[in-house]
Amino acid sequence: MYRNPLFAFTKRSLVLIKFSNRSSIRIRLSAAARAFHIQPRLGAAYNMPQSPKIVKVEELPPNEAKWVEFQKISWHDQTGKPRVWEAASRKTRGKSGVDAVAINTIIRHPSRPPSTIIILQYRPPIDAVCVELPAGLVDEGESPSDASVRELHEETGYKGKLKFISPTIVSDPGLSTANMQLATVEVNLKEDDKEPEQVLDDGEFIERVVVPLEELYDRLVEYDQEGKIVDARLWHWAAGYHAAKTML
Predict the structure, then answer these.
(1) CATH says 99-246 is which class?
(2) For residue 33, what is the DSSP state?
């Protein structure tokens, strides 16, 4: 794993946290360090002024829903019996017919092991920080392939080349009509490349984490033990890679 040091201010001192694979080193500087002005990373999940919290949960009137709608699906089963199914549907699907993309990233570096990028993001529906693949909606007039490269750059700062994109797949067909495509994007770095800046929208608080592929499965287990929730797509990818190495 490799990450840049994080700088955190307190009233009396400046704390530098330097990360290594399994440990952290904290160096507490004197009060004079307050003279230094380090530009904060706005929008980063680890730089939020406070923790998010749910203040109210109430029924959403259909006329107030901007992103989703409920559907009553009348259908006949295999015996001809009439039935009704309740489902949620996105209101943003464009001409591509695909709602969203998620991105498996492969980072190649001259002196570091092959790695991937995961993101940490608070999700109100589960009231927890979710560990996810970079992902996002496909814009109107945009192809899923173009969306995958764009979303990776916006959420992580990294620019890469699309190597593969899946057929249209679904995550929860018993509840929602939502679909997506899963892209693999390769990022090739040079020895002296610096960590890029994220291009986050207002209201996005996304922490990116670069993880060596060999450590991904164990890292997700650790996040679960910390109380975070791992997204199913990311878990399936990591578990499949882990199984291929240890069980086949």
Answers:
(1) alpha beta
(2) G
Write the CA distances from 239 to 50, 77, 89, 96, 246, integer angstroms. Answer: 33, 35, 29, 30, 10
E strand segments, 110-147: 112-123, 128-132, 135-137
163-219, pLDDT tens digit by residue?
Answer: 999 999 999 999 999 999 999 999 999 999 999 999 999 989 999 999 999 999 999
The CB-based long-range contact list for 223-230 (8 Å cut-off, 24+ gap) reads: 223/131, 227/128, 227/129, 228/120, 228/128, 228/129, 228/130, 228/131, 229/123, 229/126, 229/128, 229/129, 229/130, 229/131, 230/130, 230/131
User: Residue 15 is which amino acid?
Assistant: V
Question: What are the DSSP E strand ranges found in the chain?
Answer: 6-9, 14-19, 24-28, 68-76, 82-90, 100-109, 112-123, 128-132, 135-137, 161-165, 169-170, 179-188, 207-212, 229-230
The two tokens of residue 28 are: 């507490």
> What are the extents of the domains in the chain?
6-39, 99-246
Backbone angles phi, psi at 89, to 5 degrees: -135, 140
